[in-house]
Amino acid sequence: MKYLAFALLFSTSLMAASPEVVQYMNELSKTAKAENSSFSGFDAARGKEIFTSTHTGKQGKPMACSSCHTTNLANAGKNSLTGKVIDPLSPRANPQRLTSTKEVTKWLKRNFMDVYAREGSAQEKGDVLTYIMKN
Ligand code: HEC
C-alpha cells in the first residue's frame, strides 16, 4: 500500500498537470497532428525556445514569455507591463499551476498575443506547456 501511494505520487509529479489539463494537451496533440502530419509529439526543448526567445509583441516592443515569468520558472516573476508580482509558473513550485484548463487557455491566448502578437498554434502551446511541466 505504501509502495502504491508512492508510485502514484511519483507518476503525478512526473505529469505535473491535472487530469483536465492532460486531457487538454491530448486534444492539442490531435490538432497538431491534423495540422502537420510530420508532428510526432511535444518537445520541451522547442517549448524552451518559445518561452525564452524575444519577439515583437502586441505593443510593438521586444518581449519574451520570460520577460514576465523569468527564465527560472520556480521563482516568482513580475509583470513587465504592470509591475505586479506573478507567482511561480512551475507546477512543482506552485501546485495551483496547470490545474485548470480554463486558466491555461485564457492565459496562453493572452500571453501569446503579448509576446508574438498572434495566437499560438496547437503545437506551440503543447510544446510550451511540456516545457513548463518539466520545470
Ligand atoms: C506581460 C507579462 C506576461 C508575459 C509576457 C507572459 N505571461 Fe504568462 N502570465 C502572466 C500573468 C499576469 C498570468 C496570470 C497571473 C497568474 O496566474 O499568476 C500568466 C499566466 C500564465 C499561465 C497560466 C498558468 C496556470 O495554470 O495558472 C501560463 C500557462 C502562462 N502564463 C504561460 C505564458 C507563456 C507560454 C508566455 C509566452 C508566450 C507567457 N506566459 C508570457 C503574465 C505574462
Question: What can you see in these coordinates?
Answer:
- The chain is mostly helical.
- It has one domain (16-133): Orthogonal Bundle (Cytochrome Bc1 Complex, Chain D, domain 2).
- It has helices spanning 2-15, 19-35, 44-52, 65-69, 101-116, 122-133; strands at 55-56, 62-63, 77-78, 85-86.
- It has a two-stranded antiparallel sheet. A two-stranded antiparallel sheet has the order 3-4.
- Strand 3 and strand 4 (85-86) form a beta hairpin.
- Helix 3 (44-52) packs across helix 6.
- The protein is globular, with a radius of gyration of 15 Å.
- The protein starts with a helix and ends with a helix.
- Heme C binds at residues 51, 63, 65, 67-69, 79-81, 86-87, 97-98, 103-104, 107-108, 111-112, 114-115, 128, 132.
Summarize the structure.
The chain is mainly α and 135 residues long.
What best-fitting shape do the alpha-carbon axes yield? globular
Structural class: mainly alpha
In the CATH hierarchy, what is the architecture at level 2? Orthogonal Bundle
For the record, the CATH class is Mainly Alpha
Strand content: 5-15%
The number of domains is: 1
What is the CATH topology descriptor?
Answer: Cytochrome Bc1 Complex, Chain D, domain 2
Helix coverage percent: 40-55%
Counting DSSP H or I runs of 4 or more residues, the number of helices is 6
Number of strands: 4
Measured distance between first and last alpha carbons = 29 Å
Overall pLDDT, averaged? Answer: 91
- Could you name the ranges where pLDDT drops below 50 across 5 or more consecutive residues? 9-13
Bound molecules: heme C
CATH superfamily: Cytochrome c-like domain
Gyration radius, rounded? 15 Å
Strand neighbour order, sheet with most strands: 1-2
Tell me the series of helices and strands, N- to C-terminal: HHHEEHEEHH
The description of the largest β-sheet is: 2 strands, antiparallel
